[in-house]
Each structure stands twice: as structure tokens, then as C-alpha cells.
Amino acid sequence: MFDKILIANRGEIALRIMRTCREWGIKTLAVYSEADEQSLHVQLADEAICIGRAPASESYLRADRIFSAAELGNVDAIHPGYGFLSENATFAEQCADCKINFIGPRPEVIRQMGDKARAKEMARKAKVPIVPGSDGVVEHENEGLKVAETIGFPVIIKAVAGGGGKGMRLVHNSVSFSKEFNVARAEAEKNFGNGAVYIEKFVEEPRHIEIQIIADKHGKILHLGERDCSVQRRYQKVIEEAPSGFLDASLRTKMGDAAVRLAKRCGYENAGTVEFLVDKSGDFYFMEMNTRIQVEHGVTEEATGVDLIDLQLRIAAGEKIPFDQKHVKFTKHAIECRVNAEDPDHNFTPCPGEIILYYAPGGNGVRVDSHAYGGYKIPQYYDSMIAKLIATGSTRDVAMNRMNRALGEYIIRGVSTTIPFTKAIMSDLDFRAGKVTTKFIEEFMKRNGRG
Ligand code: MV4
Q1: Torsion angle in degrees (nearest 10) through CA of 180, 182, 188, 191
Q2: Are 228 and 207 in contact (CB under 8 A)?
Q3: Which candidate in 169, 252, 292, 367 is catalytic?
Q4: 285, 119 in Cβ contact below 8 A?
Q5: Quick one: pLDDT band at residue 117, thresholds 50, 70, 90?
Q6: Is 9:60 a contact under the CB 8 Å cutoff?
Q7: Helix axes 396-409, 419-426, angle to 10 degrees
């Protein structure tokens, strides 16, 4: 096992990684920006090195500075967390060049999955269902229109370098196709420096259900079931849960097997997530693969009892996964609410500033992953998530009631948060009945006079 790890991240995920390290006696080196001097991840690490000014482009995204810190600290491995450099294939390559273990998949696999058209092609080869659409990149509007008319409207135009909803255009008919196609290309060029786009049939009112997979260096690949992440606002997840009320054992096995087939096909290693769209008839389609630990990994940990960060470290160190597929059981139902420093009454605008009073909920079946504390100043430079609250119970009802109770106990003063918003969802009749599609929030806001 490793002796010392550099954590190339901040906030709650840096804490999450350090906690598992400490449990196993692995030393931790934190890196931080000038805006994060007072952060818990700096205080809880064994050592910490400042790597630059507040903007991420001058600190957490600076591979050169992270490698300087790694050399100074003489670390064996780097855990990238999520965001920042976590899906940067060049960074993973540079780690290998420096003889530092990158805790994640191989660089070629990161690169391949980062190109959404190549990832889809890989899924097709692995016999994982894909949404009907173009064979890869579409160069010209006439070619695109032909594809659209063949598969039928509505269609969606996606940027190959996109992801997370960025660079998508929905097109309802052939009249608007050319205009939308060219807008999509221009936006993709502007946002990602890569104008390449592809076309898919639009799946209406889908669920977003993703499969957690885990693969070691010895060819063992397992899935840890699904997370239902349908409750999203503008492609930002708000609530995640496992298991999904929509899947039965047979569909779970089919989707899990599909995710494992894809991972096998690309020689995947370490933790990953295969995202699917699931339509109302239960047909599922590959969307994208995330080659990092995800924000919502804790939901799977609580539902299955597996420590995913521990597995990530062991796998990167060359150990075998110490259990088999048949040992993976959803023993609990787990629901997560993200707590963002945002004002739900003002279009969810971020609310950086000082938390003047902080009390986190606890008790039976409650987990809080957070870097917040009373007196903490939330910097304006990073994303607004300040905590993840997970409630676990023997059934979905128990978990929802517990979540409602825990959200009611949570005290955060000084900044607005999404706590009241997610608390209202916990009492919503559609949510309680498990009627969650990617349209849920939009409809919830309309029902409650906010949209
Ligand atoms: C789609 C889709 C419908 N049909 N693709 C949005 C995020 C990006 N990763 C893919 N997304 C979608 N792709 C086809 N062919 C609908 C969405 C979508 C969505 C997906 C997951 C979660 C929330 C969503 C909200 C709106 C649209």
C-alpha cells in the first residue's frame, strides 16, 4: 500500500479521501490555493503546500505546481478527486512520467471516454445499447439533416467535447435544423475549442440512472448497482439515490452487465461510472462514462457498505478487489441531498460569504460529507456545494423521513442554502411516489409557483 498520497483537490472530497487514508495510516499531503488557507482540508492533512492564487486556473488546475508539491513531499500517488484535473489524460500521463501513481484509469482510457463520439462507438462495439443517431461526428448541415430525417425528430445535437449538458441543442423539426446545427458547432468551438458535433434521437422524459463500476489491474470488474440521479436542475444533480425505485432485479442485472462489458472492452481500471438514459418502457441507452470518483459516490457506499475510496487506493496499489459480484448487496436505501450555498428564491445565484453559525445533523442513518464549519468563509472562486447530506434506511420511506428530519436539524446561518428547497422536495407527493424523471424539478417549480 502507499505510504503518502497527494490530494489534488479541495473541499469535501479532499476530506473524504484523507479520512480513508488516515484510517489506514497513509500520510496525506494537501495542496491549496490562497483562497483556501483556512480550509479544513489544509488543517486535516498531515502536510499542506500552497500552489497559487485563488482562481483554479492559477492553482488546482496547475499540473506543474502539483508536481512540484509532489516532489517536495515525496509522495507515491496522487488522488485527483472530481473536477479539476481528474479527467485530464495529459495530467495522468505526466504522473506516469514522474513515476507517481495516478489513482484512476489509464490515460488512454480517460482520453477515449472524454471524446463523447468515441465513447459511444466503444459502447456500440461492446454491445451496450446506444441512442440511434449519426455514426460519429457530422461535418455538414446537409449530412446532419439526412441523419435527423432518418431517425426522426426531435433530435439532439451534442458536442463531442461536451458533457454535463453543455453544448447540446434540441431540434424539433427540419425547418430549424440548419440554424441549430450551426449554432451547436459554433458554441462547441467557443466553449471547448472543438467544434465537432454528433446527432442523436431525443429520448423524452428520461431517467438518469448510472452504474458504479470498479475494476482492478488483474481483470476483475464488478458493478455496485445504480444511482438514480434524475432530480437535476440545469444538468446539476440535486438529489441522488440508490437503489432506483424504477429498476427491478432483472433490469439492474442487464444495466450492470452492460456497464461491465463496456469497462472490459476498454481495459478499464479503478472506479468509474457509466451513465444511462432510461425511458419509460425501461429501455436504456448509454450516455457517457465518467472516469473519476463522482460527487455522489457516497450513496453507493451507504447502500452497499463498500468504501469506494479504499478500493480506489488498493486497486491503484495493485491489490485485487477482495470480493465478488455475488457479494455485492443493496442492504440499505440511501438518499443524498446536495447542500449548495445558493439562493433558491433568486434563481439559485451562488452565495459566497461567511458561515456565522453551523450545526450539522447526525443521529441514526445520517452522514454528512462537508468541509463547512462556523466561521468558514466560502470563497467565490469554486463551485457552491458545501455539503452532501445522506440519509440511509431499510426502505425508501425510512430514508426519506430521515432526510426530512436531518434537513430540519441542519443550521447554516450567514449564507442562503438549498436546504429548504430539497426539504420541500422530500414532502412532494410525486417524489414520495418515486415519480422522478429529468423533468421533475421543472415541474416541481411550476407546481410550487417558482418557475
Ligand atoms: C439526451 C437527452 C435525451 N435524448 N440525449 C443532458 C446531459 C448530458 N450528459 C446528456 N443529456 C441529455 N441527453 C438524448 N439522446 C436528455 C438529456 C437530458 C438530461 C440527461 C440526464 C439528466 C438530466 C437531463 C436533463 C435534460 C436533458
Answers
A1: -90
A2: yes
A3: 292
A4: no
A5: confident
A6: yes
A7: 150
SS3 233: strand
Q: Does domain 4-103 have CATH number 3.40.50.20?
A: yes
CATH number of 132-201: 3.30.1490.20
pLDDT at position 451 is 62
Q: How far is the CA of 427 from the centre of ligand 1 (A)?
A: 26
C-beta of 202 in contact with ligand 1 (< 6 A)? yes
> Is 314 in the active site?
no
What average pLDDT does range 261-268 have in this prediction? Answer: 98
Domain boundaries, given as residue ranges, for the chain: 4-103, 132-201, 207-447
**Count of CB atoms within 10 A of residue 400's CB?**
20
| CA neighbours closer than 13 Å in the CB half-sphere of residue 408 | 10
Q: Which helix (H) or strand (E) holds 325?
A: none
Which residue owns the Cα nearest ligand 1 atom 11? 165
Q: Which helix (H) or strand (E) holds 380?
A: none
- What spacing in Å lies between the alpha carbon of 276 and ligand 1's midpoint? 9
Per DSSP bridges, beta strands 207-215 and 77-79 are: unpaired
d(CA 190, CA 192): 6
Which amino acid is located at 416 in the chain? S
**How does residue 294 score in pLDDT terms, banded at 50, 70 and 90?**
very high
Convert 236-255 to b/e letters by CB count within 10 Å (16 or more is b): bbbbbbbbbebbeeebbeeb
The verdict on pTM exceeding 0.90 is yes
Average pLDDT of the chain is 97
Angle ∠(65,68,74) on CA atoms, nearest 5: 140
Q: What is the CATH number of domain 207-447?
A: 3.30.470.20
Question: Which residues contact residue 49 at a Cβ distance below 8 angstroms, ignoring those fewer than 6 apart?
Answer: 29, 30, 31, 32, 69, 72, 73
From CA 126, how far away is CA 46, in angstroms rounded? 44
- The predicted model gives 420-444 an average pLDDT of 97
